[in-house]
């Protein structure tokens, strides 16, 4: 099954269909609008339901992709699978997302004779924790970096790090502001008016690297002074990630009434709507999507002064930044939100909404990436 003649085509390659469903629909919309034939190559999961909206998109299962696996023989088979698929489809350009597609997809694209762009969506657990895995990742990126036409980073810090490590040059890289947020879907909403029953909410995968332990520890400090304040946790365990929260520890947090665990919600808008502030004390992000979604719904935010996260906050205007792993500083920032009047919290949320509209709108991000792809094809 090959592409139609005289029609430009693009392949979007990711480590899961979940990634496509949650983060790439704005790109699919833009490329279809411009007359491109769009291929998606990713392991099939429950989020294949996105095809109901995009009947014209051809989806191909990526059988050998093991997102967090370290089996070199399986990775060799992954490269061979990619080579066969790229040769058969012969897209004008392949847009890779996340680390494994960036590394192994670059090799496959070069062998298959198609142009490739790597999108670094965040450096994740490997780069947060110094060790053998980080050294291997750096080495792999250094060996394969020259195989791509361009590197797109979702924050400026990751780009600067790759340049510092001499993985890529400045001219071969560019940063955009995340994958964008749909500001129509995440509409501005009226903030809760209660000055007492304030709700602080953590939304994300239940990973220690997301700062959930610090969130719980700060909650204990605050609840000792303000027992009426609630701390919600929304998200699911990720057993494939080495940073996943221990299940017994999660049960202890719940039993101690430190947090109210809301489980996983596919649609988090009602959760954001009931919350006064969204908190993500992450150690590192590409661009924290849940923070942007909260800002789009005009909620104040608290996050960390680290790669990706720091780009979302104008200190004191739409939220607060705290150092990573600093429970006391996090508790202080939470207390600052509590001390605001409802009107002050509302104004802070409005500032966040305006920042999203100007900098993080998903259509703006799609335009930026489309233009980068066009230049790569024309070159």
Keywords:
379 residues, alpha/beta, Rossmann fold, 2 domains, 7-stranded parallel sheet, 6-stranded parallel sheet, 14 helices, 13 strands, 42% helix, 15% strand
Q: Can you describe this structure?
A:
With 379 residues, the chain is of the alpha/beta class. It folds into two domains: 9-180 and 362-378, Rossmann fold (3-Layer(aba) Sandwich); 199-360, Rossmann fold. The chain is 42% helix and 15% strand. It is built from 14 helices and 13 strands. The chain has helices spanning 17-23, 25-33, 72-89, 99-112, 124-128, 132-144, 156-164, 212-225, 247-255, 269-274, 289-296, 327-339, 342-360, 362-378, and strands at 9-13, 37-41, 58-60, 93-97, 115-120, 150-153, 173-175, 199-203, 230-234, 260-263, 277-280, 301-304, 319-322. A seven-stranded parallel sheet has the order 3-2-1-4-5-6-7, with helices on both faces. Helix 2 crosses helix 14, helix 8 (212-225) crosses helix 12 (327-339) and helix 11 packs across helix 13. The longest helix is centred in the C-terminal third of the chain and has 19 residues, at 342-360. It is globular and about 65 Å long. The mean pLDDT is 92.
The coarse overall form would be globular
Residue share in helices? 40-55%
- Unreliable stretches (pLDDT < 50, length at least 5) are none
Provide the spatial order of strands within the biggest beta sheet: 3-2-1-4-5-6-7
Strand content of the residues, in percent?
15-25%
Straight-line distance between termini: 26 Å
Output the CATH homologous superfamily of the largest domain.
Glycogen Phosphorylase B
